[in-house]
Amino acid sequence: MIFSSLKSDKAVDDSTFDAIYPEWAKKLADRHWTPIEIARIAARYLADKPQKKILDIGSGAGKFCLVGASLTQGVFYGVEQRESLVRLSKEIAEEHRIGNVEFIHSNINEISFSHYEAFYFYNSFFENLDGSCPIDKTVHREEELYYSYSSYVRKQLDSTPAGTKLVTFWSNRDEIPDSFDLDFSHSGVLHFWKKKY
Which of 54, 83, 123, 181 has its CA 20 to 30 A from that of 168? Predict the structure, then answer.
């Protein structure tokens, strides 16, 4: 019902969507999972042609990818280092028959951006700087990881072709190379970027 409503472009509120998650994941939604309206705007900007490959850098419980895949004809890939979240995302996609989405259990520094055409980033590295609301205790967190992950993403984005699109939400901008220009912003925290060279 939720995904058919999204496909029909009907309004779905976050509390209704988040009810698909088990209680432990639902409790994290306000802090860690992309709100539907943000996902809707970002996905439509990124998936500007059918079958466009979009990478969610740190996909968490898969909400952005699941919403984006329901709303557009893009193909959404979520990379996430926590196996439990990847498993949960895959189960939801399979249960609701969302075919244009894939979840990858890996660390971001093992992913080549050359396989993808557009990118979404909801500051997934920030938990290394702020431990006030951890997702869980299964991964090591430290300040140095924030900077090394951001540096890796910056280098990978810098190697993408001109015209590549990126959307950031609540970003510190440490991962954005100089080769990207700000296209426009929404609500002060959602930024749309395009590679100029």
Answer: 83
